[in-house]
Structure formats: C-alpha cells, structure tokens
Amino acid sequence: MNSSSFIPHPVADAESYESLLVGAVKAGFPSPAEGVREKLDLVKLLVRHTASTFFFQVDGVSMVDADMDEGDILIVDRAVDPYNGCKAVCFIDGEYTVKRVEIGESGAVLMPCNEHNTRYKPIPVGPDNDFLVWGVVTYVIKKA
Amino acid sequence: MFALADCNNFFVSCERVFRPDLEGRPVIVLSNNDGCAVARSNEAKALGIKMGAPLFKIRDIVERNQVTVFSGNYALYGDMSRRVQEVLRSQAPSVEVYSIDEAFLDLRGAVIDDFDAYAKRVSALCRKLTGIPVSVGIAPTKTLAKIASKLCKQYPKLRGGCYMHRPQDIEKVLRKFPVDDVWGIGRRSMKKLAYLGVATAWDYAQLREYDVRKNFALPGWRTWKELRGVPCIEFEDYVEPRQHLCVSRSFAKEIDTVSDLCSQVATFADKAVTKLRAQGSLTLEMAVFAMTNRFHEDEPQNFSSQLVTFPDGTDDHRTVVIAAAEGTRRLFDPRFKYKKAGVLFTRIVQKDEFTPSLFRDVEAGEKDARLSQVLDAINGTFGNGTVRFGVQGDGTVLSSHEFRSPCYTTRWTELPKVRI
Known about the structure:
The complex is a heterodimer. By secondary structure, chain A is mostly beta strands. Chain A has one helix and seven strands. Chain A has a seven-stranded antiparallel beta sheet, with no helix packed on it. In chain A, β4 and β5 (107-111) form a beta hairpin. Chain B has helices at 10-18, 42-46, 55-64, 74-89, 115-130, 142-154, 167-176, 190-195, 201-205, 209-227, 258-278, 317-331, 362-382; strands at residues 2-7, 27-30, 37-40, 68-71, 94-99, 102-106, 134-139, 161-163, 245-255, 281-292, 303-314, 338-350, 417-419. In chain B, a hairpin with a 2-residue loop joins β5 (94-99) and β6. β1 (53-59) of chain A pairs parallel with β13 of chain B, so a sheet runs across the interface.
C-alpha cells in the first residue's frame, strides 16, 4: 500500500454550516444554495490530533524514484502507535531519519522508505543503538 | 480531589523533545537577553548551577562540563504548553492553567476508581503525545496536590504520578517537607516562621489557629487549612484580568543615545498595549523606567522613572506610544549607559466597568479606536511590528538570543529536518 498518497474521507464534524446574514432579497430566482456555505478545511483532514501532531521537513539528497523528496513536509502524529510497516521519524544514534519500521521477533529493522533504491540498506536496530521512534508519519505533503 | 500537573524543567524539556540526544545531559535555558539560567535540567542542577545564576558567573562550570546552553525560545515553549494543556483537558472535567508549565485539574465529581493509576496514566499520556515529562500529584487540596507533584520529581519510582490522601502518608511527607517550599508561604514569612520554630510543613500545620491568623493573615490561614486537608483555595478556570502589566527587556549592549532608548521603550509600550487590549482593559497610569547595568559596579549607577497618567483611561496604541517616548526623553540622562528599560501599567480597569469623564473628546477617541483596531488586525495577521510608529525605529528589540533553537512548531521555515 502506498500510504503516502492522500485518502480523502468525509470530515464528520465540519463546521461548514455558517449562518448567513441574509440582507435585502433582490428580485429574481432565489439561489438554491442560499443558507448553505460549505468549505473544506485541509487542516482538519491532515491533523487529527492537534496536541500530538508535528511537522518535519525532508532534508538531504533526493533519490530517484523515492517516495519522498527533499523539501517534502511530513505530518507526524505521536498519538499513533508504531505498527509493523509504518513509516516513522526515528532518532537513531544522534540523527533523525525517516524509515519504514519492520517489527519482527528479533526486534525492529529500519527499511529505506524507497524500496527500489538499493543504495540504502536495511538497518537492524540492536541494543547498542541509541534508538527511539519519535512519531509515526501519517501524511506527506509534496509539491506536484 | 485536586490534581496538579507540573511539567518537569519545562523549558529544558521543550528543547529536549526536538533534541533527544540531550536526554541525560546537562542543559540550561537563559532568560531574556541571555542573562541568567531560568531553567535547568537535573544534571545541570547537580553541577550546582542555581536558579537565576547569571551566565557570566557560571561560564567555567558550563565549559568544563559541556553544558548545552539555550536562549529562551518562547514561541516553542508557548506552543508546547498549549499541547500539554490540550491533553490535560481531554482527561479532566475542568482545568485551571496556573502558569506556562503548571495546571490544576478539578477532579471533584469525576468517576475515577484508582487515583494513583489515573495520575500515572495522565503523566504517561502527556509524555507520549507531547514528549514533555509531567509530574501529576493528587490530593484533597490544591496545596497538598502541589506537594504530591514535587514527590514525583524526587522519586522516579512513582512514574510521574502520586496520590497522597491517607492522613498517615500526608503526615510522613509533611514532616520532611521544608516549609519554605510550600505553595503560598512567602519569603517574607521566613523570619516569623523561624521565630515560631517552624521548619517543616508539618510544624506549620500544627500551629494553633490563633497564631496563624495573627501572624500570617488570610493567605497564611488558607495554606494552614489546606495543609490540614481542608480545601479552601478556589478552583479558578476563569482567569482574572491582570492588574499590572509590565513589558521590559535588558539590552545586548548598553544604550547611550536618547533616540535608541526612545525607540526601544516605544516598542515595549506598543507590546504592552496589545496585551492590554487582548484582555479588554484600559490603563489609567503608566510608569516608564530605565536603569544602568548593576553588574558594572565601576560605572555610574542610575534608576529613573517617569509616571504618566491617562485620566480617562486608554487602550490606544498611539496615545501610549507617544507618552512612552515623551517619558523616555524626560528621564534620559546622557551621563549614563542604560542596560534595561520598560513600561509598567500600574492602574488597570476593565473597559466595560469604567466611567470616563463627561468632557472628553468623543470624536477623536473614536478615530483613535479605529486606528488601534486596524493596527491589531494587521499585526495580528502578519506579525508584530509589521505596522508601527516612526518613533519605534525598525521595531526590533536590541536584546541578544545567541543560542535560540529553531521555532520547530511555529515557523514553516524552521521545521525540524529529517534525512531519508
């Protein structure tokens, strides 16, 4: 599954019905949309938990065929528990990196986010590593 | 029951959220203008760095122990505080934000069967969602809850949560708790307390009610009752408008020209008015003050101030900025080099409770009010100082913040960077 693509879903609690101050009604056919003013709020779609959502920016060399490019903005939600195969911002041995986390019986393995690129090898996390999953990436904002 | 949620070494913890490599290492955060240490990690406290220690006095400790030093990053701390508050609000029926790093939770009427587990859960949730370690103390009164939260910091085994309610437990804790660390016991009381032989919170709670009322007035009596388990400090989820408002800064370099000092003070006055307007108040009086560097004992020392009154009350940017600049011109003395200056609103009233004089110029007032509204709207949207008065110069404050971390959560250009 390509989890970095947007999956739009209806926003349940949209504050989309603002009351309109209806002034003098001019002659003519009344608009059937009168009194209805809906709009989409991108923040509501992308930020589910305002307390625990943070933004990161992808830095470094961009890769051919990569899911992520330099400059992309990652939306990271600490409320989401890391799951097998999740993309996450990790902190390993003093550096931030974004990786796909595979959680196996022998511990976690950090896979490069771009599966096609063989330059980047999986990193097994051992007891000697100073390691933490900072937060799970829920969306990637990418300039088209 | 009441809970106090207190963020551990808050400013340091905010920095560490984005710098996990600093976990377990000595870190300090400096006050405005990089003057003094205002937050210290436990490791920095262990090195003997005291609260409020001026940087120049601890330079060698800092260098010898590779202490990481940050300038205050109040945009970051404010945003992290907002996040912790949100988590707390999701866990309690009512929250009173007491300061940037502390909040009381009112748990009266909440259905919680295990307060100890609840305290630990709230602490763990704050840590997971925001990255900030929080100590949650629960007790029958706010004063005792504060003491319980301090226990969490002393004993990591409590895992961030402590429920203190059995009389024998409270007694055991209070017997070891220094009275001057009790919430509401001021430094001014220390002489009297020593005279009465009071060293611990327990000694204080054992005083006769008559002696407490006689020596420590109403606040002291409330603290006495609270220590005895009787709640009497109101839970306030409504914040009283402030009665005083001060905006002041010390400068990176001493200022010795009247125009520089004027533009600084005018900028402080403008900030103060923005705060005043946000709480819907008027000020009747403003003190403008400036002082020399008290650490340069060999140079001539001076503190001077000018009092300005506004008989009809004002919350108008232009009126206050002009008055602040005029006050500065009057107090400026070319013999001195000024290190710090500011404005203080000393008499504040609520706008809707104040009757102005009958003979004021209503028409001019309305025009000024419109100007102030427009200023607030523009500067609120595009950032403080976008539109300003000529006397403010370029509107920047000449203070230093050499070691400020990026505004990770409030500026698009300063997001934390992550490699693929």
